[in-house]
User: Fold C40 family peptidase from Candidatus Anaerostipes avistercoris.
Amino acid sequence: MIIKKMRLSMAVVTLAGTVLATTPVAAAGDNSASDNSKAQSESKYENKAVADVRSNTTLNIRKEGSLDSEIVGKMKKGNIATVVEKGSEWTKVKSGDVTGYVKNDYLVFDNDIEEYAKDNVKQVAKVNTETLRVREKATTDSDIIDLVGEGDTYTVNNQNDEWVKVSVDGETGYLSKDYTELDYSFGNAKSMAEIRAEQKAKEEAAAAQAAADNTSSSAASSTSSSASTASSSTSSRRRTSSSTSRSTAASSSSSYSSSSSTTSGSATGSSIASYARQFVGNPYRYGGTSLTNGADCSGFVMSVYAHFGYSLNRTSSAQASNGVAVSTSNLQPGDLLFYGSGGGINHVAIYIGGGQVVHASNSAPYPKGGIKISSAFYRTPVCARRIVR
Assistant:
């Protein structure tokens, strides 16, 4: 830490050559840096309010300043809002897409926010250099377990004077403080519509996972009877007339044509998902775009879509502007799911249906890392985009 020395001028009062008092006086402008820092901290949270509730509860945002009024959204502990109008009992706030009234008793205002955040709000580290090494331990002599890019944001699990401990897609590592900017991850309120959509998506993902597990268990039991079934089917096929076979073939062809014409849009998304799945088990490589020799999360997505003639942006945060926005409760195979922390995006995956995604996760060997399949909600998605329409 560099400590700037204060230039001092000595105010000296003498009487008949005798020093009566010597007082150190700061030269003009010497306190400006300190004053500016304090002013910046205060202005940063001017007209802001943070929810102060227990971790397992939420703060209701109401349409009007009354307990009888409709609930239009909710704030979690540490969520931040802009103060629209402060009253003696209720304050009108705007947080995320929600505007409404909150009881003053459960809000921390303005200059008190900084002190409150130190003990109640998680910090995030934002990478401010082009490429930063993630170390296994908090020392430059430690092994490099991953690389992260400029703008990537990660929740701080712990820290000392020189390093921050973070999780990068399941891998715990350390980032040098010299190349990160620390801030608080306040988060925003969610509307009731957003809350319902997220709950529905989680329920559907859980149901899809349960169905997949059930299919896997029933497959084993059905295998034991396959021999007798095959024998019976062979005998039956021998008794089937050729005319019936021709009729069945014609019917099947007609059915297939009808199905193809009505589901061509979703089939395109499904074909992208199927294509992406075949690379499961291949390695992760930061900055890579090779589906076989190594790709990072956005490189994997970009290369998969390039195979089908789509040109996407290179980074995950930039890809979040490709295509059109869709709700996470209305996902289709081929959609992109984005993840992040502290308001930033640092990961992207391809939705493959059944509540699952395929993605280039991290540099650990497969199946812990590499290109693999995970639950779509292994982390809470920030947003979703649809490329194929």
Summary: Residues 192-224 form the longest helix (33 residues).
